[in-house]
Structures are given as structure tokens and as C-alpha cells.
Amino acid sequence: MNQIQQKALRTLAQQVIDKLSLRRNNRELLKINQQLTATNSKLRETEERLNKANTDLTESKERLQTILDLVVEGIVITDREGKITYTNRRNREIFKMDEKRMLTLTNVSPEFNNRTLDGSPLPQEEHPVTIALQRGATTINREFLVSDQHSNSVYLRMNAVPIRDHNEMITGAIGSFADITDSYFLQQKLKEREVSLRAAISSANLGTWHMDLQTKELFASARMKELFGFYQDEQISYKSVIGQIAESHRKKVIAIAEASLRQNEPSELEYPIIGYHDKKLRWLCATFYAYTDPENPNIFFFAGTTADITERKMEEQRRSDFIGMVSHELRTPLTAIKAYTNLLQRIAGKNNDKMLVSTMEKVDTQVKRMEAMINGFLEVARLGEGKIRLNITRSDLASLFKIAEEDSLVTINSHKVIFAPTETTPLDVDQDKIEQVLINFINNAVKYSPPGTTIEVSCITKNGMAQVYVKDQGMGIPIADQPFIFDRFFRVESDAMKDKKGFGIGLYICKEIIERHHGKIGVESTEGQGSVFWFSLPVSII
User: Coiled-coil segments, which residues (predicted)?
Assistant: First the structure.
């Protein structure tokens, strides 16, 4: 084989080798391309998941931002040094500061002017966020003062907790707080009122008590125990207190207390008690009212006060006894005077002695006035002893109006008394006593109104009650005196009343009569413009 052939053979061999290498490289390149395609596919999937995660994270952040902006409390997040990194909308509203400005501050920046409730500077280490950052402790309901951007003081109630990483290292803190300025001042007012109330109770020497309606446990003040004859260190119960009430009043007290609970309305009444240890008779004026625990509306309490009115009751009893005794003693000579007056009237009539007849008529008028006064005193005495009796019969209010109108025509010539037409109105009442009330109202209107003025008497029926009104154009009653106008022996003290005679028992008797008929009585008056006295009685079912 010559050189040319050898060279050709080597060239051919090299070409075969190159082709084989190329084929092998092509196979490797194909394999690499396939791997690269798979890798690119995985990268695209990863990129899509990453984009989706970023989108979800952005949406979550926006949702969280929306939620935090809707909460009623301010939210602040700080880093490890206390620098504010997040603030919600309520936070900025409380401090009246924009977000950009807020994010330049720390929890103890001078702009906040952190102070204790007494106004002194709040030490940095006592700030709830600082406590969370430095001690890793949680603070609950810490109250302190701050200032908003306009230097207005704001009372805050704040909670703060530390933020920790996976290694339990503190990386920041979260604080939530509420503006309690209004409630703080309200609470202060309530405390002041409570202090004033306690001072009033102490000065009035009142006993106080309250009872848990679930457990029936009774809590009584020292004065309350003293009034009921218990020792101050002695534990007392509802049953033991009720047991000291005089048997004559016990059922009534229990009934009124239960009604007060059912109707959720305060009540007041007077009753006698016998002291548990000292056996002393005392009269008490007691109040009852129900309320719920402000911190737990499901817990109910029954509470009240008691005042010792023994001296007043004894004085009233002595006065009633005296009035009753004197009235009885006066009736005997008055009866004799009346008899002699009638005799002299007849003699003067027979002798046609006009002067004596006129004189005897005046004497008879005074005798009748004295008799009415004595009867009033006796009525008061009977009321105080609970001996007044009602003769209940079916009556007609229209008939009572007619009787009162006829009486007015005969006895009243100084005023114009107008009776409004009244329909038939059946009542189950003591007719004489209701007539007495109506006549008393009319006579008072005459007594306290200028001559020549008009007195209007009317009646309407509403919600099953007959309501009677007597309206005058008189001097009226001062507002301060109106709550007491029906009290026994009460009289308005004024220059206009100096020439008006009376003992303050007429309206008291009227009140007792109406209330014993299960009715109501009252007055509406403007000083200098007249008064409207009224009473209402249940209409009977025909």
C-alpha cells in the first residue's frame, strides 16, 4: 500500500471517528436538551407558584389591613427598638396623626407625652410596649394619659404582647388600645356621686342592704342591723329580717316587696318592727328596688334603705290622740250650743225679732263651721288609727255631680261654679266620702281664688278610670310645695296665705279617702295662674 492509499485510509478512518463522535455528541446534546426542557418546565411551575404565593400574600396583607382598619381599637406594631412599623386607622384617628408621621416615631416619643393618670410623666420602662420588649411580659388593661397631635389629653386603656421568632427571640411588640376618655370622666362622676351618696346616707343615718336573688344571701350595713336589733358582727338572713316585722304589717311588706320585684319598680312603705335582741318597737321607712350587676347582667340584686321614723310616728300618734281627745271633748259643749242656737232661732222667729234671727243665723254658721272642723279632726284621728270605714255601694258620678252642683248653688255666691255635663258613670264607692272630696276641692277653689272668678268642674272617663277635675283661677301653688300639698297638717307658707284659715287636714283626708278607693289624686298648678286638683276612681263594670 502506497503512501497515497495510506493517507486516504487515515482520512477515511478519521471521518468515521468524527461521525461516531458527532453521533455520540448529538445523543448527549439531545439528552441535555431533554433535561433542560424538564428543568425549564419545573422553573415555570415554580415561578407560577411563586407568583401565586406573592398574589395570595398581597391579598392576605390587604385583607388583614382592612380587618385591622375596621376594629374599634387602635393597633400598633413596633420593632425590637420600639420604632413603630405599623399603625391602623383607629390608631391614627385617636392621635389625629397621619401614617407617614406615625411611622417615624417610637412608643415613647415625646410627641405622645405619655403620663400617668395623675398627670405626672410615665417612666419609659413602665410603658406597656416597653415592658413587652424588655421583659417579654404581657400587659393587660393598663390605663394612662397621652396627647394627640393637637395637644388634647386622651385617656388610653392598653394591652401589649411581645413578638417572638422561631428561636423565641423578641423581635418586636404589638399593642392594642382604646380611647376611654368619655368613660373615664363618667366613671369619675359616678365615684363622686357614690361618695356623695355615702355621705348623705351616713348623715341621714340610713341603714342599707342588698340581696343576691340567686343565692338569697343578704348583705346589711351596721346601721341596718342596729335598726332590726341585731349585733353588728352578726350574720343575718332575709328570713330573720322578715321575722322582726310586726305581724300586723308582715304580709303587706312581703306583698309590696314581691310586687316591686315583678314590676321592676321602686317601692316605699312604713312598718313597725320588734328588735331581735333588744325587743324594742321601732317604726321604719323602707325603700325597695331591683337592679342588675353592671359587670354581669345575669346577676340580679334586690336592695333598699331603712330609716328610723319612730319619733315621728310617736309624735303623730300623740298628736292624733290629742286631736281625738280634744275633738271628743268639744263635741259635747258644741252640741249644747247648737241646741240653744236652734231654740233661740225658733223663739226669735215667733217674736219676729229680725235682728236676733240674723244673729242666730250667723251663730249657727259658726257652729256648723266648728262642727265641720271637729269632724275633720276626728277623721284624721280615725285615719291614723286605721279605723275609718267605707260604706261601699253602687253609685253614679253624674248623681254626685248633681248633688255638688245643688250644694254650690245654695252655699256659693262669690264665684261662678260651672259643672260640665257628665254621662252616667257607675262607681263602687262610699258616696258620702267621695262627695266630701268633691265638695272639699270646690270649697278650696273658692277659698283661694279671687271673688268673681270661675271654677270649672269636669269629668272624663279614660282607660277604665273616671277622672274628676276642679280648675280655679286662684293664686296657684309654688312648685316646691306641690309634692307636700296632701301631707297631714301641711300648709303653704306665703304672704298670700296669712289671711287664709285652716289646719292642713282637708286635702290629707281627701288623699286617704281616694287611695282607700284604689284611686289616685294630684294637683297641677302654676303659681299666680291657678290650680287643677284632680282625682281618679275605677269605673265599675255594669
Answer: 26-63
Model confidence band, residue 382 (pLDDT cutoffs 50, 70, 90) = low
Q: Are 282 and 310 in contact (CB under 8 A)?
A: yes
Which residues have C-beta within 8 Å of that of residue 101, sequence separation ≥ 6? 149
In a domain, 190, yes or no: no
- Same-domain status, 174 and 77: yes
Q: Tell whether 209 and 150 lie within a shared domain.
A: no
Grid coordinates standing for 40? 425549564
What pLDDT digit, counting tens, does each position of 458-477 carry? 999 988 899 999 999 988 88
Collapsing DSSP to helix, strand or coil, 204 comes out as coil
Least confident range from 29-33, 55-59, 163-167, 352-356: namely 55-59
Domain of residue 254, residue span: 204-308
Question: Which of 507, 510, 505 has its CA nearest to residue 537?
Answer: 510
The Cα 258–Cα 254 span in angstroms is 6
Can you spell out the DSSP letters for 267-334? EEEEEEEE-TTT--EEEEEEEEEEEEETTEEEEEEEEEEEEE-HHHHHHHHHHHHHHHHHHHHHHHHH
User: How confident is the model at residue 213, as a pLDDT?
Assistant: 77
Report pLDDT for 140.
92
Ranges 167-181, 303-317, 487-501, most confident: 167-181
H/E segment holding residue 203:
helix 181-203
Backbone phi, psi, residue 425, to 5°: -135, 100
Sign of CA dihedral 287, 291, 295, 298: positive
* Residues 500, 440 within the same domain: yes
DSSP letter assigned to residue 80: T
Q: How far is CA 490 from CA 445, 465, 531, in A?
A: 17, 28, 17
Residue 114 predicted with pLDDT over 90: yes
- Biggest CA pair distance of the chain: 204
Q: How far apart are CA 293 and CA 305, in angstroms?
A: 18
pLDDT reported for residue 70: 62
Q: How far apart are CA 275 and CA 243, in angstroms?
A: 10
How many structural domains are present in the chain? 5
CATH number where 87 lies? 3.30.450.20
Cβ pair 229, 278 in contact under 8 A: yes
Quote the pLDDT of residue 503. 54
